[in-house]
Amino acid sequence: MAKKLYIFGIGGTGARVIKALTMLLASGCKLAKDFDTVVPILIDPDTANGDLNRTKDILRLYQEIRNQVKEPDGFFRQEIKTINELANNSSDISPEYFQFKLDGTDNSTFEQYIGFDSLSEDFLHSKDDKNFIRLLYSTQNLKSELKVGFKGNPNMGAIVLNQFINSEDFKKFGQTFNSEDAIFTVNSIFGGTGAAGFPLLLKNFRGNENLPRHAQIKNAPIGGITYLPYYTLNKKDEINAESFEEKAKIALDYYNRTIIDQKRINALYFIGNKGSTNVEEYAVGGPEQKNKAHFLELAGALAVFDFCENINAYSCSNGQAIIDTQIKEFGIERDSDSISFDDLNISNSEQIAFPLSKFKLYTDYLNKGLGKAMNVSRWTKSNIKLVGESQNSVLNESYFNSDRYKNQINKFNNHFDDWIDEMAKNKPAFNPFNDTNWDTALELVKNRKPKRKGVFPYFEKSFMTLDTENCNLISQIEIRTTKEQGHTALIKLFGQTTERVLKKHRLFK
Amino acid sequence: MKNIFAPIYETWFSIYEPNYRLLFDTLYNGNGYIYLGLSFIIIPLICWYLFYYTWKFPYGNFLHWLLWMLIAVVIVFASTWSIANSEIFASNNQKLIEALNDPETGYKEYATSLPTMYGSINSLMALLLGFIFALFMKRYSKVQTHLPF
User: Fold this and answer.
1) Does some domain include residue B147?
2) Are B139 and A388 an interchain contact pair (Cβ–Cβ within 8 Å)?
3) What ipTM was predicted for this assembly?
4) What Rg do the C-alpha atoms of chain A give, in angstroms?
């Protein structure tokens, strides 16, 4: 039976970490211990949020591409599914299926949502009164529009998010949960949605008896990553970045008492950036909230792999972890403003350097190298005479001009390149790749020089080596495919050829 | 083998002149025809083997293929000319040596034209055989399978 990992990404940070995870999965990273399916679930009332929608689009593209690849074994090998697919046994792909819907948040203010107007002003004779609410929420809170989220106010988030546990989506999650499955949550501690949503979710996983398959969920291995402040904002307004650290301390104390001491979670990862050197454009939510990708989000995605790797150590009884909650923190080997693969610890570097370099070489090639090979190299030709059908490639000009290439492969690759570029421009920068051109394509990994010297050393570090390997492998039986399965050929071909080229040139072992 | 190659030159291409029989007997008896014949087979074979199986240039096009053909033909012509010249003028057939040295026989004048004639014939053969080799070898080539078409 398929073993699934449900990943709940709460708020903008949750969405960005799931984006980073998706990029790692696309590049060929895979969860350990036989987890064959990842089920990402995004929770955010701010449906127009730029980060959220970008992640949803990336997840949709991942699925669309992967579903067209026959037995993927390199890039895109990890299966990603939505709750909808699992519950309805359907193969419909929609970005909306990745997000849990929150009813009543689209066009209402917080005071409308809680029925503030129906409360009495008479605190002496009324059971529920407005003054009590005013103790807990400022006028700004009450007038706040929910469609842009909770603007860093977890006290609002805790109320609104409480309703989604009764939603159809949450019930479907319960219905699809099997005994071998596990749960991972991602949230930030210094905002509104994530800080409120995480304890609430955990409470329901461990204690909501109305949830279908509650017996399994209650004792399932649960891990989570909580983000301490790692960025600041360029403006003070409704959201004040100066309060991030204070809010984080208060929330940490709360988590300590109610989650860690109570062993409600098996493993809790903490990550943050001292000094918050990264400054983001101020936005209260909506499409304007589209933060640049940050190295810490990539590091957070690594926590998911670590959790799965150690899953056998995590067991629960009666809704509590049998051993104390494992607290883990992320660190790098060398502190640097511009982090490269060599600055990571060996294990992290081995985990991501090779797959990311392969995928980067693949996207770089399609951007800068394909033009020279198109209709010239045999791997792009489908009209070769006097040879078997298998010698003709499906990856011809018409494939690369097709809508499915442009709207799926190309768009996903653009997201990947944006992700890499944004991390390189952030603080601290994660900048493991050099800018390359056609001639210097294999000098892409910082601090690593291609070592192979052929007859013509000039060409040995160019895209020519990749084109040669493409020609060598295009007719291989596992790459050959029908016209309709062009993605299979492309993904499998480059999965193998990028690996060969990087290893042949001793960039990786 | 010389019984295979000799008719190619003497019958197919009619390079046989009974008045200069000594020349053709020398080529026949001294394995000259074998060397000439093998040169239009082996040289194109090696050239096209190199082209299809060892030349890993992924941007090869029809002009590259034509250039390769030209190179193969030129090598065949040069080799053939050299072989024929050597087989005739460096022969140890005493009668032929005497005939070549006697201006009245006309042997030397006729013999001098032979290397070019054999070179031309072998070039033509190399062209034809090279094309056939190419069509066969391209089927099993990984990088140049699309050439010549």
Assistant:
1) no
2) yes
3) 0.86
4) 25
Q: Does A464 contact B at CB distance below 8 Å?
A: yes
Block means of pLDDT (10 residues each) for chain B, length 149 residues? Answer: 85 87 89 92 96 94 96 96 92 87 87 93 95 95 93
pLDDT at A239: 60
Q: Which of B58, B138, B149 sits opposite A377 (nearest CB)?
A: B58
Asked if A307 and A171 count as a contact pair (C-beta separation under 8 A), the reply is: no
Q: Which of residues 27-86 of B touch A (CB under 8 A)?
A: 56-61
Q: Mean pLDDT, to the nearest integer, of A186-202?
A: 84
Helix (H) or strand (E) holding A339: strand A338-339
**Topology of domain A4-104+145-331, CATH:** Rossmann fold (3.40.50)
Asked if B61's CB is within 8 angstroms of A471's CB, the reply is no
**Residues A24, A26, A30, A34: what is their CA dihedral angle, to the nearest 10 degrees?**
140
Question: Would you call A372 an interface residue with chain B, using a CB distance cutoff of 8 Å?
Answer: yes
Chain A to chain B Cβ contacts (< 8 Å):
46
**Residue spans per domain, chain A:** 4-104+145-331, 109-143, 353-504
Say yes or no for a CB contact (<8 Å) between A386 and B61.
no
Nearest-CA distance A356 → chain B (Å): 25
A490 alpha-carbon distance from chain centroid: 23
A322-328 long-range CB contacts below 8 Å, 24 or more apart? A323/A263, A324/A263, A325/A259, A325/A260, A325/A263, A325/A264, A325/A265, A325/A266, A325/A267, A325/A268, A326/A266, A326/A267, A326/A268, A327/A260, A327/A267, A327/A268, A327/A269, A327/A270, A328/A267, A328/A268, A328/A269, A328/A270, A328/A303
Comparing alpha-carbon positions, the chain A residue that sits nearest to B53 is: A472
What pLDDT is recorded for position A237? 63
How many domains does one find in chain B? 1
Which residues are CB-neighbours of B46 under 8 A, at least 6 positions away? none
Please check whether residue B48 lies inside any domain of the structure: yes
For residue B145, tell me if it sits in a domain: no
Q: Which of A16, A3, A5 is nearest to A305 (CA)?
A: A5
Please tell me if residue A387 touches chain B, with a CB cutoff of 8 Å: yes
Nearest to B142 among A372, A381, A472 (CB): A472
Partner residue opposite B58 with nearest CB, options A373, A387, A391: A373
Token pair of A85, please? 């697919």
Shortest Cα distance, chain A CAs vs residue B141, angstroms: 9
Interface test with B, best of A370, A382, A387 (most B CBs within 10 A): A387
User: Does B14 lie at the interface with A, CB-CB under 8 angstroms?
Assistant: no
The answer to whether residue B140 neighbours chain A at the CB level (below 8 Å) is no
Nearest chain B residue to A459, by CA: B57
User: pTM, whole model, 2 decimals?
Assistant: 0.89
Is the pLDDT at A129 greater than 90? The verdict is no
A364 vs A27: CA distance, rounded Å: 13
Does A500 reach chain B within 8 Å, measured CB to CB? Answer: no
Which residues on neighbouring strands pair with residue A398, listed in sequence order? none
Residue B146 placed within a domain? no
pLDDT computed for residue B91 by the predictor? 87
Range of the domain at B79: 2-140
B148 preceded by cis ω (within 30°)? yes
